[in-house]
Write a structure and sequence with these properties.
about 260 residues; two-stranded parallel ribbon; Oxidoreductase; NAD(P)-bd_dom_sf
């Protein structure tokens, strides 16, 4: 379980441990013994050597790996897309998408050798809905969704299934570690502040991470897992995306964020 030190990752790892999984959570700093109901390993998903070392350590201890939950990631504070440099764009993709790819590539040989396994990727409703002023984060989650769909087709005949869990707003400390734009432009000042205020308002009443943890457990244990899982509010948003006319969806997005029509 990557990104298990807090929020969705911690809630999911805890719930998996409670139902009998031997859980290894990861974070860049690891953790002191006794801090969690599961063991923590130090792992930086942006470094190939760190990923390989953590997976090898786990295999030496357990001899098999049945479930990978890719959760590590971070967001960007609301801002115009052009307010973040190419370096920032590369940084968020390196964690949110390429980190997931690194982990997947590291575990697949072991799952294939043992004849099966599950991979659950934590995506977002922003992987199928537009979010103005969150373009880079949205792009990483679109990439996660596309990668997950293709990967499941490739692996299902080898006994390995892939699912993507796509929550909407979740009330976690995630928003406390947002990357601030490094190329701020005055033209976006007012709308940037307005969107940030609106997001904070919604987060106050949002579901807690346990809602996502329950769905991850369902995806991990289902006899016939679905490709997409949308917890709570996200299920209604997926229905809107699927059935609402484009003009209605467009207007709804702008109205929700209190943007000019």
């Amino acid at each position: 379980m990557t990104g298990a030190s807090s929020g969705i990752g911690q809630a999911t790892a805890t719930q998996l441990a409670q139902v009998g999984y031997k859980v290894y959570g990861t974070s860049r700093r690891g953790a002191q013994p006794g801090q969690h109901a599961f063991e923590m390993l130090a792992l930086d998903v942006t470094r190939d050597a760190s990923v390989e070392a953590a997976v090898q350590q786990l295999m030496q201890r357990e001899g098999r790996l049945d479930l990978l939950v890719n959760n590590a990631g971070f967001g960007v504070a609301p801002a115009g897309a052009e307010e973040s440099s190419i370096e920032q764009a590369q940084a968020i993709f390196d964690t949110n998408f390429f980190g997931l790819v690194r982990m997947t590539r590291a575990v697949l040989p072991h799952m294939r050798r043992q004849g099966g396994g599950r991979i659950v990727n934590i995506g977002s409703v922003l992987g199928f809905l537009p979010m103005p002023y969150m373009a880079l984060y949205s792009a990483t989650k679109h990439a996660v969704a596309g990668y997950s769909e293709a990967l499941d087709h490739e692996l299902r005949t080898q006994g390995i299934r892939v699912s993507v869990v796509e929550p909407a707003y979740i009330n976690t400390p995630f928003d406390a570690n947002l990357m601030q734009p490094d190329a701020v432009l005055d033209v976006y000042g007012t709308v940037r502040a307005g969107v940030e205020k609106r997001v904070k308002e919604v987060l106050v009443g949002a579901d807690g991470p346990e809602v996502v943890a329950e769905v991850v457990l369902r995806a991990a244990t289902a006899e016939h897992p679905k490709l997409h899982y949308t917890p709570g509010l996200a299920s209604r948003m997926r229905m809107l995306r699927r059935f609402a006319p484009a003009s209605v969806l467009d207007a709804g997005v702008r109205k929700d964020l209190r943007l000019e029509a």
